[in-house]
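[SOLVED] Predicted holo structure with zinc ion

Edit: marking solved, answer below. Original request kept for reference. I posted the sequence and ligand SMILES and asked for the 3D complex as C-alpha cells.
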Amino acid sequence: MVLDELLSFRIHFWPSHFPIEARYYEYRATGPSLILMSRRISTPEELRDFQQEVIRREQRKEWSFLAYYEPFDQEKSLNPCVARETIYRFWSRAKEYSYMSAYQVRRVHIGKSEQLDELAHECGRLYSQTVISFWRTVRHKGIWLKPKHLMRWHTSKKLHAHTADACVQAFFAAMNSWRERRKDDPDAKPPHKRKRYFRIEYKRSAMSLVDGRLRLSNGKGNTPLVLPWPWELPNTVVIHWTGTEYEAIATYEQLPVHGPFLPGKVAGIDLGEVHIAAAHDGAETHILNGRLLRSKVQYRNKLQATLNSRIDKRMKKGSKGRKRVIRSKKKQLKKIEYQIRDIEHKQTSTLITTLHQAGVQTLVIGDVRDIRQGLDVGSKTNQKLHQWAHGSIRFKLTYKAQRLGMEVVLQEETHTSKTCLKCGHRRKSSPRGRVFRCTNKQCRFVWHRDGVGATNIRYKYRGDFGVPHVVGVMAPPTGLRFAPHTRVARVEREAALLQ
Ligand SMILES: [Zn+2]
C-alpha cells in the first residue's frame, strides 16, 4: 500500500503541479527530541516562502528538512502520525540520499609503507588510551567525560593536532551509535575494545595541494605524508587498512543546485520492462537495453529457488551440510545482487551523462506508480521486490540528474504508449511487440514503441500531447549498450565540481 509518493529530497525542488506536501523534523528541547511535521503547500508563493524558512531554521538547528511528497489522501497524509513503518521507510531513504547527494567520495588505493604503519599505530594508541581513560573515569569517579576533556588529555607528538582529535572523536561517535542501537537492542555493548591500529583522519586544515601532490601534515617537525593526487583538494581524507593494503577515502562536499530552474531542453523518460528506460529530448532518442539486467534477475530468482528447495527437502535441520549450503547460498546471491546493482548504476549513469551532454535541463519521468498499485501484492517479499523494480531505476536516475543540476519531475503517463506522435490518434489497444503502428488509415505512422512512449511523456509535460505534430523522418533510437567499465558519470561529476 503506497500512501503517498516521494517527489524529492531536495529543498529547492520545483514541482510540476500543486498541491504538494512538505515534511520536516522539528527539534524539541523537551519531550521527544525529533517530531515529524507536515505542511501542505498549494501555491508557488507558499513554496518559495517555505523554502526560505527551511534554510533559516536549518541554520538555527530548529528544523531538518526531509522531503516533498504528493498528498495521496488529504486527511491522512497531512496528519503527521502516519503509520510507523512509513515514517521509517522515509527516514532510511532520506539518510541514504543525504549521504549520496551531500558528499562525493573518492577511494584511492595507496599500498603500504612503514610511515603509514607507524601513523596507524599511533592513532590506535590514542584511540585505545581514550577508551581506557574514559571507562576508568566512569568506574572510579562516576563521571562521563566529554570529548573536549579527552582531547586535551590525550595528544600526540607524531600526529597533526586535528588528526589526534579525530581519534578521540571516533570513540564518541561509536558511543553515540551505541546509544542509538540500544533503543532496539538491549544487548548492545558500548565501544570498549582497544585497537592496535586505527584509521588516520586528516582535516582540511592539515592539507595542501601542490603540483598534483597532496601533502598531509603530521604536525610540526614530523615528515608529512605525501600522496600523488591529480584531483582537486578534498574536505577530509581518511586512511584505513583494507586487509591487503591502505586505502585513502577522500570526501568532497557537493553544493546544492539552486532553483527554480530556467526553462530549457526537456527530455521525456519512459521506464519499461523490456527496456530499462527510453529517453527522447526533442532531437534524439536513447534506449537503455534491459536484456542483461533481466537475465541477471531471472538467474537470481532461479538460483534462489533451486538452492531453497535443496535446503528444504534434502537437508536435516541443524546439520553441518545444511549450514554450509545456506552460507554458500547467501554468498552466491550477494554476488548476483552486486552485479544487478552495478548494471543499474552503469546504465543509469550512461543515460544521464548522454542527456546532460545534450544540454537537457529537465527530466520528465513517466509515472508508473499506478501500475504498481493495481498489481496483486501477495507476500511481503513480493511487495518489496515490487516497489523496488521501477523505484530503484527512477531513484538512481533522479539523484544522478539532480547532482548535475537537472530538474526531475514525474509525469502522469496515461495513453502515452497508445497515442500516435504524428496525428494524435489514440489506438484502442496497446501496441503489440516493439513497434508502434498508427491505426488511423490516413496516417499509418510506424516507429519504435519505446521511443513513442518517451516522446509522448515529453509532449504531455509540455502540454501538447495528443495533437498532430509535424514529424519528419524520425531517427531510429540509439541503443545505449551496457559498458562494463563505464566511468562517464564520474568524469562528468568531476567536471561539474570544477565549474
Ligand atoms: Zn497517426
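OP edit: Confidence is low (pLDDT under 50) at residues 73-102, 255-262, 371-388, 487-492. Thanks to everyone who chimed in.
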